[in-house]
Design goal:
- It contains twelve helices and no strands.
- Helix content is 44%, strand content 0%.
- It is an all-alpha fold.
- The longest helix is centred in the last third of the chain and has 26 residues, at 264-289.
- It has a domain at 1-148.
């Protein structure tokens, strides 16, 4: 199946109307984040189902989601108290003010997980915390897979929201969860977009695997190196000691990919890190025999 195809034919609108959502083909292409969640069986609350019924949010909800997110992304600073902003987000979604439960729409059920994705895209950290508070009013699954197979942490990585990624990590988001697309982890997404700060935040999450493999055996460092993202390469290889010799299915390492793509600055950085690692290893060996 084509990973770029929208399998939900009931509505054509997607989030790729906004610049933050444009993705290139692998290694310079990935599918646009899409606002569809039909028949997603991975949605559940911490203490049971997040809402009554199936997960199809309906064509009207898709349309509202797309336009709502695109419009709000022009706002750089969230205003008002977090709970008020959450209610405003829900109302924009088609929430019925006569209903106390923010999940309820007029003709469907909107789970709080959708609002979580919205808040991550907007970078509204306080509302993310509100939705995921352990003693809060919402049963939200932090790793809910919406948007054609992306979790909130994947979305934070793609959008470059390092603070949101760190907050999700503190709230037990799984940093190694594979997306539907090529089994990418959140760290793959950050590396693909060259979002160095988001990559650092994700790599700092407990249990994060810096050398995690995608289906083609690419590590996050393969993606960052082949695309020439020097800062992200420095974070992955310099700070978190990503494996410089990891081979993909074609036998290519991050360094060989950088050379093939003529990313001279990345080649220089990787060579310097490799030489530093070797010198440190030699010092350790000398110390053993002293």
């Amino acid at each position: 199946m084509n990973p770029n195809a929208n399998t939900h034919h009931h509505h054509p609108h997607t989030l790729n109307q906004h610049p933050n959502q444009h993705l290139n083909q692998h290694p310079n292409q990935a599918p646009a984040l899409q606002a569809t969640a039909a028949n997603n069986t991975q949605i559940s609350g911490g203490r049971g189902p997040a809402f009554i019924g199936h997960t199809n949010i309906g064509a009207n909800a898709n349309f509202a989601y797309n336009n709502f997110v695109v419009n709000l992304q022009t706002q750089t600073t969230p205003t008002g108290q977090a709970d008020r902003r959450l209610r405003r987000y829900a109302e924009q979604f088609g929430y019925d003010p006569s209903k106390e439960n923010l999940r309820v729409r007029r003709n469907d059920y909107v789970p709080a997980e959708i609002l979580l994705h919205v808040c991550v895209i907007l970078g509204d950290i306080e509302v993310v915390k509100l939705l995921l508070a352990r003693d809060g009013d919402y049963e939200v699954y932090v790793d809910a897979m919406f948007l054609d197979g992306w979790s909130p942490l994947h979305v934070a990585a793609m959008c470059g929201h390092a603070d949101a990624a760190a907050a999700l990590g503190r709230l037990n988001a799984n940093p190694n969860l594979p997306a539907t697309y090529r089994n990418w982890s959140a760290l793959h997404c950050a590396a693909f977009k060259g979002n160095a700060e988001a990559a650092r935040a994700i790599a700092n999450i407990k249990g994060a695997e810096v050398d995690i493999r995608a289906y083609d055996m690419w590590t996050p460092l393969h993606l960052a190196a082949s695309n020439g993202y020097t800062k992200t390469v420095q974070v992955l290889a310099g700070e978190f000691h990503a494996n410089l010799n990891a081979k993909d299915n074609g036998g290519m390492s991050p360094l060989s990919l950088a050379k093939a793509q003529q990313k001279k600055k990345v080649v220089k950085i990787l060579n310097e890190i490799r030489d530093h690692n070797r010198s440190q290893s030699n010092v350790s060996i000398i110390n053993i025999f002293e």
